[in-house]
Amino acid sequence: MCHSLVSVIGARAIVAGMTSSAALSRDTLRTLQRASGDLAAASVAEMEERLPWFRRMPADQRAGVLLLIQNGVAGFVSWLHDPQQAIRLTAEAFRSAPKDISRWVSLRQTVELVRIALELFEQLLPKLAENEAERALLTEGVLRYGREIAFSAATSYAAAAEARGAWDARLEALVVDGIMRGDAEESLLSRATALGWDPAAEATVLVGNPPSDDPPAVVFEVRSRAARIGRPALLSVQGSRLVVVLGGETERGEELVRISEAFGPGSVVAGPTVTSLAEAHRSAGDALSGLRAVVGWPAAPRPVRSLDLLPERALAGDPEAEWQLVDRVARPLEEAGGSLLETVDTFLEVGGVLEACARKLFVHPNTVRYRLKRATELTGRNANDPRDALVLRVALSVGRLARARGLW
Q1: For the chain: N or C, fewer Cβ within 10 A?
Q2: Assigned CATH for 318-404
Q3: CATH 3.40.50.2300 fits 190-306, yes or no
Q4: What confidence score (pLDDT) does residue 232 get?
């Protein structure tokens, strides 16, 4: 921003617009030098009159713009005396600019300032010439001035955007890394808020392989897919692992499927959806545990929820998965009473044959059907489904082991 605004009123554009100061008389140079203050004041007055947003700026910010204009006009006059000093004079104007001016004026507002400054210079500068030749030279300088401003402003804002993008990428990587490590909630939320993330939004962590070794390409792929489903996303490539934090609810699962397409070949594991970013470390921990254990389920869908990998995670030694199997499956069945746990256990032992289970329990097959339906309602697992049967079998085994160790 500083660069583009200084270019509006500084010497750099005039350097391209004028080929020699020999055509200007000493009297004209002195006139320009004496008029530099008036030119700066007139520019600010014109901006205040025509731009409502400029009038609403605090006095110190308007003073900062005025300082830039004064330095720019003074640099222009000095260059007229010595064209070889253009680079040095422009750099000095940059150094004198207020450090935070880029936060005051946007690109659109800069264009408005440029337009007003050009119109004013086109009106006033030629009037300071002593003759028609000097007037033509100054007019030509103003015309080329606009072209030079356009290039300078574009370059400046592109550099600012790249710098901000690099800073945001580093900050985003810190946020994601903090989620994976379970950092302090306050520091993590403040950084995420600086990136525009709503701290109260639900969050789901997905982990898998990156689609390529080119980080910008990975970022573009994830960002574009997140934009298509209208969801905020934070991401980080951590070695051979891509981590994406997706905002919003994911109960239907469609959003997870769309985002998983941005990952490379291999499994993609999604942790549970948590209520806010402050709880995202729990989703991350489950997702990482699932990624380590998903090899035990070759037919796992993509993406696969970490909750669907509880048996593999428990077999891999994840205590959190063991606790969830007990809490979600074994405990509800035991607390329900009515021989529910015994019925599920027997049904699994006889290979899922209803009549065999009924004979072993000395009950009617309809009684077995009723009890299995009740077990499904309590645990969300259907003993007639092969995958759910595995979850039930492992959960019951883990429950027995936990009880034997006095943990339940």
Answers
A1: C
A2: 1.10.10.2840
A3: no
A4: 92
Cα separation of 112 and 312, whole Å? 62
Is the predicted pLDDT of residue 185 greater than 80, yes or no? no
